[in-house]
Amino acid sequence: MTGKRLLWMSCSMLIVFGLTTRLGWSQKGSRLPSLSIPDIVERVNPAVVNVQIRDGRGGLDYGSGFIIDGRRGLIVTNYHVILGALRTGSPVLVSLPDGHLAQASVRGFDEATDLALLEVPVEGEPLPAVKLGDSDALRVGDWVIVIGNPFGLDHTVSLGIISAKNRSWPGSPFNDFLQTDAAINPGNSGGPLINVRGEVVGISTFASTVGTGLGFAIPVNILKDVLPQLQEKGRVTRGTFGVQVIDTTPYVRRRMGLKGESGVLVVAVKIGSAAARARLRRDDIILKVNGTIITSASQFNRLIAAEKPGTEITLTIFREGRTYTVTGVVEAETSTHSTPSARTPRSNQPQ
Q1: Residue 23 domain-assigned?
Q2: Residue 325 bridge partners (DSSP)
Q3: Which H or E element spans position 4?
Q4: In terms of Cα–Cα distance, which of 301, 326, 286, 323 is closest to 168?
Q5: What is the number of domains present in the chain?
Q6: In the prediction, which pLDDT does 175 show?
Q7: Which residues partner with 66 through β-bridges?
Q8: Are 313 and 307 in contact, with CB atoms under 8 Å apart?
Q9: 39 is catalytic
Q10: Share of the chain above pLDDT 90, in %
Q11: Local confidence band at 14 (pLDDT 50, 70, 90 cut-offs)
Q12: Among residues 312, 328, 310, which one has the least CA distance to residue 273?
């Protein structure tokens, strides 16, 4: 055996060993139950479903979903997967683990987060269901698995890592998207993004058609925020404060004289809004909401949205070198959000 071949084999073994070893460690370095990729896939795959919508031209549009409650037959998918059915009144069909094609009812949907909740009848034993994890605990570089139905190829599995977190997107005020290089293709939308514990940590949503390895998923904690309302009333009621904010950069914080890494910059205040009555103004930096440190614009939007209209909140702001505390009352949201297909640039299509 030549020296080059021996070196190549040694490097290959180290890479494989490193991959299989790392799958046994959590985000904080503590030992997890030993789960190989096949173990994870075998555990989660039965709870992944194929969603089919008639496209009005005699064909089918495909998407994915996953069962979150096996006794009640509750399934999560993307709103844009079922949008065509909502517009045309065509049935939503779901291929269940036993191969049965069931007609699902739309239990609820939320345009702003691109999430929908379906329900199928359950006869006999409960359906297999996934376990929801904690997307906030993910770190860049963590291994993740995508399961779905790309191009109608049901239960296709791909492996990758978390490439980035907190990716914002125009028209998506509440989503800090997870970016992954695991393959996400047309038909994967609504399927699960899974961590090394076998828990769902995201919902596959879209991928860039410019370049490769640029897939995006909604963090599962966003789903957890809206799920109770989707189950109870089918829609999501949100609070609003009438202020538009963006993430701050080290340059902006330095220019403003603000130390630390938290805070979001106010870029617009709606006339007559709660924010205007609280005397917020452009170029204020919001540091905290009810004592919670603000680290991103989407986190701020989610915190405000989660408050019931009429609730008083306290904001800590930074203005002209000084810190102030202001209070205001959250109002009911009246604006509507564009559909995912409308708000997604052509170079990045729902999958």
Answers
A1: no
A2: 316
A3: helix 3-22
A4: 301
A5: 3
A6: 62
A7: 48, 76
A8: yes
A9: no
A10: 61
A11: very low
A12: 328
For the whole model, what pTM was predicted?
0.78
Domain with 209, as residue range(s), is 135-234
| Annotated catalytic residue 189 | yes
Last residue of a domain, one of 177, 209, 234: 234
Q: Which residue has the tokens 């939007």?
A: 301
142 domain-assigned: yes
According to DSSP, residue 97 is labeled T
- By the 8 A CB rule, do 145 and 42 touch? no
Q: Is 155 a catalytic residue?
A: no
Question: Which pLDDT score is estimated for 8?
Answer: 44
Closest to 87 measured CA to CA, from 52, 56, 127? 56
pLDDT digits (tens, 9 = 90+) for 121-137: 998 899 999 999 999 89
CA gap 201, 229 in Å, rounded:
20
For residues 174 and 222, the answer to whether their CB atoms sit within 8 Å is yes
Name the nearest CA neighbour of 47 among 106, 80, 95: 95
Contact 203, 78 (CB under 8 A): yes
Beta carbons of 242 and 331 less than 8 angstroms apart: yes
Contact 167, 178 (CB under 8 A): yes
| pLDDT for 227 | 95
User: Residues 95, 163, 189, 262: which is the catalytic one?
Assistant: 189
Do the domain assignments include residue 4? no
Q: Is residue 304 part of a domain?
A: yes
